Amino acid sequence: MEIFKIISIALLTCFLSIIIKNIKPEFHIPILLIGGTIILLMVIDQLKEIVNYILNIFSKTNLDYSMFISILKILGVGYLTEFASGICIDSGNTSIADKVLIAGKIIILCLSLPIITNLLDIIVSLL
Amino acid sequence: MDYNIIFKIAAIGILTAVVAQILKNIGKDEIATIATLAGVVVVLLMAVNMISELFETIKQLFLIY
Question: Is the ipTM reported for this complex over the cut 0.90?
Answer without folding.
Answer: no
